[in-house]
Amino acid sequence: MATLDSVLHLALCSRRRLEDVVGGLPWRYASLLDRADARAESGLETHVRLLLRSVGIRVEVQVQISGVGRVDLLVGDRLVIETDGREWHSDARSFADDKRRDLALVERGYLVLRLSSAQVMFESELVLDVVRRLLARGEHRWAARHRRAGLAVHL
User: Fold this and answer.
1) CATH number reported for the structural domain that contains residue 54 in this entry
2) 71 lies in the same domain as 144
3) In this structure, are residues 131 and 42 in contact, taking their beta carbons and an 8 Å threshold?
4) Most buried residue, 8, 69, 102, 124, by CB count within 10 Å?
């Protein structure tokens, strides 16, 4: 799935051509292209999206937030999930930019969950458990206290 997302995101192949390729695969692969998302910018992001959706958690991909820019994933109104692979997040500049964005998100009332590649790939059950607990507590939704504080913003 990450490969399909990447091919679509990078426009390496048309969707029509991919439909032809996937159509020639055994039937169990037929729905792959239906779940592909060209907005996904990394395999880690794809993995988390599919993990959450596999248990019925609704996830938005590459959501634009005013004053911050695009975030990898948004669950509910305010739970931002960022996936950080070493390729794009290891130098001092990207590290500082991530911290600036996190601060801007928190200032606007968002809850930020920043996941490493190791957490995504090797601790996915823990990640899923944490997200489920946040959802059970309603942390993914704007509450009256957020609205009173002027934090419940609209995208």
Assistant:
1) 3.40.960.10
2) yes
3) no
4) 8
In order along its 155 residues, the chain shows pLDDT tens digits of: 777 777 776 767 777 887 777 777 776 666 766 677 767 778 789 889 889 999 999 999 999 999 999 999 999 999 999 998 766 556 788 889 999 999 999 999 999 999 999 999 999 999 999 999 999 999 999 988 888 888 876 54
Residues 28 and 47 in one domain: no
**d(C-alpha 75, C-alpha 97), whole Å:** 22
18 and 69 together in one domain: no
Neighbours of 45 (CB within 10 A): 26
